[in-house]
């Protein structure tokens, strides 16, 4: 059951990064985000109405602070990647480095706030990730 959402996440992220790198440099990055979010709003509304749900206001009332934080976070992620690519970040490594650093941060967040186990195996994996970031950051 997890294969489909993982595949969707990978494909969506590939398209996301190709699109982020392809936003015209002469366009204000935040106008690009306005267009992105307008498209996402329409697509999300269509999918919402095609899936099982309660009345729209009942569903909206179920939202909490996390929905707002996620919206602000997504704006930060998207703006950051547009800036990374405009600054010369490479499509082949920028997302990899960022996602490795996110994974390292999530290891700490998971351990501190969610009491997830930080095992020797996870620490070794994190060390390999750090080595990978160092190798990817070296100039050829």
What does this structure look like?
The protein has helices at 3-22, 29-50, 56-61, 65-86, 94-113, 120-137. It is mainly α and 140 residues long. The longest helix is centred in the N-terminal third of the chain and has 22 residues, at 29-50.
Topology at a glance:
Blueprint: H1 3-22, H2 29-50, H3 56-61, H4 65-86, H5 94-113, H6 120-137
Helix pairs in contact: 5-6
User: Helical content, roughly?
Assistant: over 70%
H/E series, N to C?
HHHHHH
Tally the helices: what do you get?
6
User: Please, how many domains?
Assistant: 2
- The low-confidence runs, each spanning 5 or more residues with pLDDT under 50, are none
For the termini, the CA-CA separation is: 41 Å
Number of strands: 0
Rg result: 18 Å
- Give the CA-based shape: globular
Fraction of residues in β-strands: under 5%
Overall average residue pLDDT: 95
Class by helix and strand content? mainly alpha
> How would a crystallographer describe the biggest sheet?
none
């Amino acid at each position: 059951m997890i294969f489909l959402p993982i595949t969707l996440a990978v494909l969506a992220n590939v398209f996301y990064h190709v699109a982020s790198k392809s936003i015209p440099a002469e366009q204000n990055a935040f106008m690009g985000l306005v267009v992105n979010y307008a498209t996402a709003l329409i697509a999300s509304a269509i999918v919402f109405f095609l899936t099982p749900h309660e009345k729209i206001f009942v569903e909206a009332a179920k939202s909490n602070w996390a929905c707002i934080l996620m919206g602000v976070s997504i704006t930060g992620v998207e703006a950051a990647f547009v800036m990374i690519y405009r600054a010369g970040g490479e499509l082949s490594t920028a997302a990899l480095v960022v996602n490795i650093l996110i994974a390292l941060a999530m290891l700490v967040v998971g351990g501190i706030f969610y009491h997830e186990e930080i095992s020797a195996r996870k620490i070794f994996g994190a060390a390999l990730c750090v080595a990978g970031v160092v190798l990817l950051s070296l100039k050829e």
